[in-house]
User: Fold these one by one.
Assistant:
Number 1:
Amino acid sequence: MAEARELLRHEQGEFTTTTFIAERLELRSGDEASYLWDLQGWYGGDINRFWWKAEGEGVFDGDLESAELQALYSRAFTPYFDFQAGVRQDIGGESDRTHLVVGVQGLAPYFFEVDAAAFLSTEGELTARLEAEFDLRLTQRLILQPRAEAEFSAQDIPELGIGSGLSSLEAGLRLRYEIRREFAPYIGVEWETAVGSARDFARARGEDPDTSRLVIGLRTWF
């Protein structure tokens, strides 16, 4: 029986998979028309994986505002959560930094998808990010997704517009229609605000610390 169980484990539990997810590919209204991408994927098995994440945003007819790429080792430590560690490289604007990354990602109770990470940059700056989203299925194809993101910092980073403590909050609602499970266009609204000294940094750059926008985009995976 031991030999049979080992064969079953090998055939059913040790295969590898590759997944690509475009969580957000969107166009955004506002003072200036802008765009955003939020991509991630992995290669590996149920326990150990190589995980990558890429996101960024910019303004049409303007420069890329910010972008980042993460390369992570991911290991499941519960059936629903992975521990992740690796590196992050920032690109664009004043941000040209490399970070060490430590975080967790998974499915919290009541089906909240959570992604939390801390970052230590080559400049000695300690920051953190918490993202959470929830899919509310209205019909078999129509899904309402509330989403929130918070940024934190251990110190002021004026050149990046980041303030100490809670630095920024972002919240939105997206309504998507699954033409297929793997292909779902959406529309939505989003609100973003700078908090604390980050508000002063935004005003000093001539920017509004509070922003509301309409978004239209696509979520796809394979």
Number 2:
Amino acid sequence: MNDITTRLAVAGLEKSFGAVRVLDGISLTARQGDVVSILGASGSGKSTFLRCLNFLETADAGTITIKGDTVTLGQGPIADERKRALRLHTGFVFQCFNLWSHLTVIENVMQGPLHVLRLPAAEVRDRAEALLNRVGVLERKDYYPAQLSGGQQQRVAIARALAMDPDVLLFDEPTSALDPELVGEVLKVMRSLAEEGRTMLVVTHEMGFARDVSSKVVFMHRGKVDMALPPAEAFGAGRTEQFQQFLANTRH
């Protein structure tokens, strides 16, 4: 962990729900600017893994290090204050947007910097407007989420995550709740974030994004990392038998 470019390192992460082992010794590293696409069938543990990185779920064992800040799981409860501090390292973009329905678009983006980071309101508003412009929805800043399309809501959710200036962005199937015609506008924003050098972990079923944008493709199978390769290898000669079967089923 002396490599200053390492943004995220996970070792031996385990998580069970009752008798069901959902994560079985997951290890993964992402360096500054890496875009890691995480693929796998439903139930393979992808979303649980991402939620453990953001401490929306607490893993049973293993270590998580984000920008040099390490927590070891399985040694007793983690204090809420510690979880909040660790959560500041990551920005989470949910599958179903999770915007606050009673707040306007700009208020949604301003909440974290105002109430968690306690930054000055004028500074927060300026940054929120810049981010909304960045994702192409500035003209909707005074609208409420219900007045937006799904694609617009997800772009607001991305702006909200960026507003906290996280070290790692976590995307949990960010396009799966969208109508097909709206997927492209969200992927365009995500591609531009990758071009900026943002460190991103993306649980996705978008094979084109995984192939064209990723620096690493991780395939999870039954709670384990079955494959972690550069996309040219993952979609080429390096693919595993399980990943080959997954691709065949996905195409079907």
